[in-house]
Amino acid sequence: MEIVEKVLNGDKRAVARLISMIENGDQQAVKALSALHAHTGNAHIIGVTGPPGVGKSTLVDKLAKSYRELNKKIGIIAVDPSSPFTGGAILGDRVRMNDLNTDPGVFIRSMGTRGHLGGLARSTADVIKVLDAYGMDKIIVETVGAGQSEVEIASYAHTTLLVEMPGLGDDIQTIKAGIMEIGDIFVINKADRAGIDRTEAEIRTMLSLHPEEKPWLPPVMRTVAINGDGIQELRDEIEKHLDYLQSSGQMKLIGEERAREDFIHILKANVTKYIIERSMDQKKFDELLSKILSKQIDPYSAARELTDDFENSL
Ligand SMILES: Nc1nc2c(ncn2[C@@H]2O[C@H](COP(=O)(O)OP(=O)(O)O)[C@@H](O)[C@H]2O)c(=O)[nH]1
Ligand SMILES: [Mg+2]
């Protein structure tokens, strides 16, 4: 496929086009993803999550620039389900990241709510594959730490940064309840603000509430993203986590687990699509639906009938 060749040859526009195809549920995208599979599995995926306004985008921007100093190629995916924009960039991020966007070693994409037939998390997983095959060394995925799909997206990362800022007591509660466990590195951004010691103490208390022996103890870092303070230290810590994942064999395990989940997900989607489309073609779906409505059959038995048909057809 032409688009596959182009992506593998470093054509940025082809990458952007393929991502749009993924978002639009274009069948050709599946073919391209199939062909790209052999070229994936090399990128280090870094999740950056936390409440809105803590400075995630600013931090990602600075982190990307810091990695550019090491000549690493960087993919950035900003997932913002509250944003209706897709295919372009969330305005604030676009302005902030403009100088990065013109760098050939950087690819930035924002993903909003529009499109995504198989769900936002699914699209994000596919976009990560594209950027991986495109040769990005680091893929940074920014998500707002809120809903289920964000937690799911965060689970694609090898290294997850949970970002906080001083004076966010209630949000820390939210993080504690939901995603505390997924944090590999805690970042208190806006360290130029008052209340930083208290925030750090709160995070450390929460971490100590998980007393089980962990081979990796999540560090708590302080940054001032607007002026770059602490960014290099954060980058070093991220690299330390990558070393840990590799030397402990965790990286390999994560890869196996992701491949398994991915395979099951695709299989489920295919089977579902097959059964539904086939039954719709044969009018059986409509027949059963009207029987369900007139109480001649219940939906459980009706679904069973269709899956039995499927089984018999194998
Ligand atoms: N004082 C201060 N402001 C910051 C810092 N980092 C980001 N900001 C500001 O916080 C606001 C939200 O930042 P943004 O990166 O969009 O946050 P996001 O919603 O988490 O992505 C912007 O006005 C930033 O300029 C920081 O370290 N200190
Ligand atoms: Mg942001």
Kindly describe this structure:
The protein has 314 residues and is an alpha/beta fold. It folds into two domains: 208 residues, P-loop containing nucleotide triphosphate hydrolases (Rossmann fold); 51 residues, no CATH class. 55% of the residues lie in helices and 12% in strands. It is built from 14 helices and seven strands. Strands 3-2-4-1-5-6-7 form a seven-stranded parallel sheet, with helices on both faces. β5, α9 and β6 form a beta-alpha-beta unit. α1 packs across α2, α2 crosses α3 and α4 crosses α11. It is globular, with a radius of gyration of 22 Å. The relative contact order is 0.11. About 3% of the residues have low confidence. Magnesium ion binds next to α4.
